[in-house]
Amino acid sequence: MRSDDIAVITKLVWADQYCLAKLQDVCVRTFKTTTDIKALKQTEEYKNLSDTTKAALLEKIFKLL
Fold first, then answer.
1. What is the C-alpha to C-alpha distance for residues 4 and 62, in angstroms, rounded to an integer?
2. In the chain, at which end, N or C, are there fewer CB atoms within 10 A of the end residue's CB?
């Protein structure tokens, strides 16, 4: 699950598309600040994420606050 050559957002999209819960969890855990998640929200890929993945990101924001 470690690959520094592939962007986290790309891995998050793959996890979302192929229902890879563990990969999604690893990706969400890489975000250390709310600013990281806000930057993710500005990407084109974010718009294609499922509501479930967006909810996981929101939950992460709550944990960071």
1. 26
2. C
